[in-house]
Description:
The protein is an alpha/beta fold and about 280 residues long. The protein contains 9 helices and 10 strands. Helices cover about 35% and strands about 15% of the residues.
Amino acid sequence: MKLLGADPVVFATVGQDFGDYRRWMEDHGLRTDHIVEIADEFTASFFVGSDQEQNQIAIFYTGAMAHARNYSLEQRGLGDAQVVLISPNDPGAMLHYAQECRQLGIPYAYDPSQQIARLSGDDLAASIPGATYLLVNEYELAMVLNKTGWSLDDLRGKVNILVNTLGKEGSRIYVDGLVVDVPAARVDKSVDPTGAGDAYRGGLFAAVLAGLPWDVSGRVAALCGAYALEQRGTTSHHFTPAEFVSRYASNFGDEPRLDHLFGVIADEPVEEVDFE
Length: 276
């Protein structure tokens, strides 16, 4: 989101080992004032192994994340957020944040991702209804439907916008009774799938908050995912506004409204933010 001109706030619990990454975030212009350090814990860690077909096996250490349920958006002064993205977290915290967003009237996006395996059908049924957005890939969508017993039509009736990513087939956005099919962006060389979904989400919300229509927002998201796929690591990709607009045009055609993302005319020189 930061690469696209947005100013996201990260709200999370971390451990005593977070110092180097906090400095990295601050060096790249990211806010860390709502990242809470738990002194006697280590930061949650996710280890993933990928084979040559990009199938993955994951190992997860919870650490400081287990304390996330003890903090609230209102307590941290975030009750006026434009939108809250509830990403994979401590299951109790995910349920708490969904309830709090509904109570405070904050639009929220529910992105259970890897935690679907730990969330019960009751947990999902308590968190999804009332969400503005639900974001899932093909496997996760099947898991949600299986655990809740809902049909796809049932699920669409419980959220305003359903975003279903489909890998190299692109993505599908269900919104306002319509289905918006979004093509995938071309990838020069797929190096590492880790973080591509997060890059897609960052691009989607940066574009939506900038007022772009759904077909354009989905294509912005797809291109962000392609950038991430081409690098090893989750935050190794980078681009300038001019590079992004040029690559968007080569994939999807010219789109003058992309200027809304960056707040500048994209072919003017701007400072590059390098996420390495």
